[in-house]
Specification:
The protein is an alpha+beta fold. The chain has a 5-stranded antiparallel beta sheet with strand order 1-8-3-5-6, with no helix packed on it. It has a 3-stranded antiparallel beta sheet with strand order 2-7-4. It has 4 helices and 8 strands, in the order E-E-H-E-E-H-H-H-E-E-E-E. It has helices at residues 15-20, 48-59, 70-73, 76-85, and strands at residues 2-4, 10-13, 27-34, 39-44, 88-94, 97-98, 105-110, 116-125. A hairpin with a 2-residue loop joins strand 5 and strand 6.
Length: 128
């Protein structure tokens, strides 16, 4: 699945797209993995003010400059942020649907955009 981000730090709700791409299984677990070292995946509420708060919060997780890796491609802060947040989430699948809580959404968090990001979505059925 491809996701286009719009700014250097961006939070994109991908829940609906993940749900639409979910393989047909009754129960199991869905893993969502971002295939990049400068982006992350998280589960949280997709309320617009909270998404802005997440952008502000992650901006403060790392100084934007002064890192050794910056000599290579000037984005060490993005790598550090993604290491803290993580690159995957697992969501239970029940009756063929994502079993997220009422306010839970799957969020792609961009740290080095704008870019086109790739998400892998895999579902593993429960073992009976």
């Amino acid at each position: 699945m491809k996701v286009i981000t719009e700014s250097r730090i961006d939070v994109v709700d991908v829940t609906q797209r993940v749900a639409e791409g979910l393989p047909n299984i009754d129960g199991g677990v869905c893993t969502v993995f971002v295939e990049h070292t400068t982006a992350a995946v998280s589960i949280n509420e997709a309320e617009p003010r909270l998404l802005d708060d997440i952008e502000t919060f992650v901006s403060g997780l790392s100084a934007p400059e002064g890192w050794k890796h910056d000599a290579l491609d000037d984005n060490a802060d993005s790598h550090l942020r993604s290491s803290l947040i993580g690159r995957s989430v697992c969501v239970p699948v029940r009756d063929g649907k994502l079993a997220l809580g009422t306010w839970q959404s799957i969020l792609l968090i961009e740290f080095d955009g704008p870019r086109t990001r790739s998400l892998s979505v895999m579902a593993t059925p429960s073992v009976e």
